[in-house]
Amino acid sequence: MKPAALAQRTGRLIASHPFTTGVTLLILVLALITGPVRGPHRPLRGWLGAGAVQLLDGHWWSPFTAVLFTDDLLELIVVLVLTVLLVGVSERLMGTWRTALAFFGTAAVGIVVGALVQVAANDIGELWARNVHGLLVLDAFTAIGGTIMTASAFAGTLWRRRIRVITLLVAIMYLLYSGMPSDLYRLLAVLTGLALGPLLRQTKVTGGWLRSSHHEVRVLLASALTITAVGPVIGLLGSTRYGLLSPVGLLFSNEAPSATSVVERCQAFAVTRECFRELTLERINGLGPVLLSVLPLLVLLVAAYGLLRGRRFAVWLAVAVNGLLALLSALYYGILPIASARPSVSPRYWEVTFILALSTLVPLAMAVLLVVFRRHFTVMPSAKAVRRYLLLLLGTGVGLVAIYVFVGWLQRDTGFTRPIDVSDLLADVLERFVPVSFLRREPVQYLPTTPLATIVYHNIGTVFWLVAIIGAIPAMLGRGLRRRGTTEDAHVRELLHRGGGDAISFMATWPGNSYWFDPIGGGAIAYRVEGRVALTTGGPFGALGPHDGAIQGFARFCDDNGWIPVFYSVEARYTSLFERLGWSTMTVAEETVIRPQLWATTGKKWQDVRSSINRAQRAGISAEWTTFAALPLTSAVQLSDISEQWVAEKDLPEMGFTLGGLDELRDPEVRLMLAVDENGRIEAVTSWLPSYRAGVVVGWTLDFMRRRPDSINGVMEFLIAEAATRMKDDGIEFMSLSAAPLAHTAAAPDGGKDTMDRVLGYLSSSLEPVYGFRSLLKFKQKFQPELHPLIMAYPDPVALPAIGIALVRAYLPELSVRQAATFVRGRG
């Protein structure tokens, strides 16, 4: 970009963000005047800073001045960057005067309410309030946090949720692990912004949780796990530690007293605060113990990466580590009944014990969340990989225990502060694997004094956790399974390339499907079992018709397993076969098919489509035919945002079965048609599933359709028209716009409706306000397609209730009880 153009663009940004520009310059100028390196000096600091004492002394202006200064140069740089980015975004979202109100208003409320909490807690003798009563606060992050939380109400559905979840988690972690008054003020400012945003936007505050897709749940849980794992680092890096979970901060001290003197002065029941500190310092005398307290957190970071990749192995790894941390907190801080008795020395000692016990709640809550949402992590590890990892941990643990006992026995007379025996070593060995922060109140029976004993005493736990991390990495990076074997996957794709199926046959590759392979004809049928009903995903594929033998063979297979076979969304040409078998059939959808070689948009019926094409071209929008793997990172992120906004605005979960989501776009055989404006902004996306014959693509089926809420009208018509033109040039035989589930124009035979017709009709009517299947069918009819009925066939009308429930569970596997009740009442 040329300097003149850059200057012009910068000028426009400054003009459109006057508050951000003003407050950034104000913070910078005030820092240069009062001291950018170490912040304002006393007595100016006392006059500008906020706190309980300052407000009691009548410094009413301090909540406003405290958020304009910083404590040091690094903090100043971070504040300036965050002000430009976060306050700037906030001003763009909600305007100048609202941003100014949020910046100073949320900070003032947070500081005043926080100071009142300090005063009240100090009056009743609460330990934390007494420790921080006289501390001064200079903290611009309080105002920034309150501002971005207020602005979240003006953001789109996706970013509103992300901003709120991440901002709240960060604020809570700082309060727990740092515990400065500024951390309390910041959390209160963030909560104030959460309430202020809807008031400024004049929208109703909804208590319900916005719906997330699998992908977004993975992002949010991975973010939450990362923040909770990094939380202890806040305590490690802080110069002062008042947080409820800050004891781990002792690990960064390097003052290690003599092991002998510590044991002599810290015998059981001779417990003082200084004694606890020196015992902990002696326990961390060396690199190994410091790593031992950090490595479990690194395991959680590895698990967070696995969560982003949808790995179920990562879920259970994170649950195991968080559960272990919660158990250790409960055990060593005296919560569990089996915990050993603690010496009663003073009321303050027991208050500290209670505060430390709260550390159980954070990892326990994280573990519970992961268990509750585990269904969103569909990439399953192989049984072999799990066994290998568990055997690796077990073998490493047993081997390290044996080394510790053996070396300790060799050094039993001279290697420790007192003579020991095997029983002493066995009683102590498990604590060698426990992070030191949990042991700070444990009486020490002996400590190592020789180099060999010290190496083993301090490092076997470190080796174990390193092995746990390294061993978990292949499970996070490997291909993984989606409830199927890789051999099956490869065979299914080989059959799909042969052809012989229908327009939705490629959906057989999606997660959740199982396969029955025809031993005679060589084809296959994809199905999923819901309850005792086996629902097929379309008809047979992989072999040329007729498929009578495959259909009858699959029916026998289901009967042998005690399942009710239901052929769902199969072509109507199978109706005569099912009638001969004595089965019932009904139309459940209509596939809309276009012949690209006959594609033309001339005539009155095509007026809407032509108008949409012209409108998009005038707006500078072009169509791109590509794959997900070929997209740059910025485009992939845009697709995720578009999808999440669509999902989050629904009252019911993202649907599955014959409806693909964002994960299905990543298949290398799936093609994308994107609507992109002149600035590279993606306005809409469609995805297309291939249909093969003898290894050659002969047709494409529309699956994924999403657009931005603010995109131009007709952008979808433009994309489908461009796709048809592209397929015409490529010589494609057919282009299927797919079928809208549970929506069709066909009338029931003889004008009547049987029970299943009424069940599916009710299901379609109930889902229409949320998903708009009938509206979708009407939209597709703009393209003058051929309408091909798709049927459902089932052998026993008595099983209709079970089939109806199976269909609901297949399409809405995440449906909650509350949502089911809403669905049953009907919508409309």
UniProtKB/TrEMBL annotation:
Q: Domain (Phosphatidylglycerol lysyltransferase C-terminal): give its ranges.
A: 494-794
Q: Where are the transmembrane segments?
A: 12-33, 73-89, 101-121, 133-155, 162-178, 184-200, 220-244, 286-308, 315-335, 355-377, 389-410, 455-477
InterPro entries reported in the protein's UniProt record: Acyl_CoA_acyltransferase (IPR016181), LPG_synthase_C (IPR024320), PG_lysyltransferase (IPR051211), Rhomboid-like_sf (IPR035952)
Keywords in UniProt for this one? Answer: Cell membrane, Membrane, Transmembrane, Transmembrane helix
This protein's record includes keyword Membrane: yes
Q: How does it sit in the membrane?
A: Multi-pass membrane protein
Subcellular location per UniProt equals: Cell membrane
Major subcellular location class: membrane
Whether Magnesium counts among this entry's keywords is: no
Biological process (GO) annotations held by this record are: phospholipid homeostasis
Q: Can you name a GO cellular component term?
A: plasma membrane
Molecular function in Gene Ontology: aminoacyltransferase activity
Lineage: superkingdom: Bacteria
State the name under which the record lists this protein. Answer: Lysylphosphatidylglycerol synthetase-like protein (DUF2156 family)
Species per Swiss-Prot/TrEMBL record: Leifsonia soli
What broad taxonomic lineage does this protein's source fall under?
Answer: Bacteria, Bacillati, Actinomycetota, Actinomycetes, Micrococcales
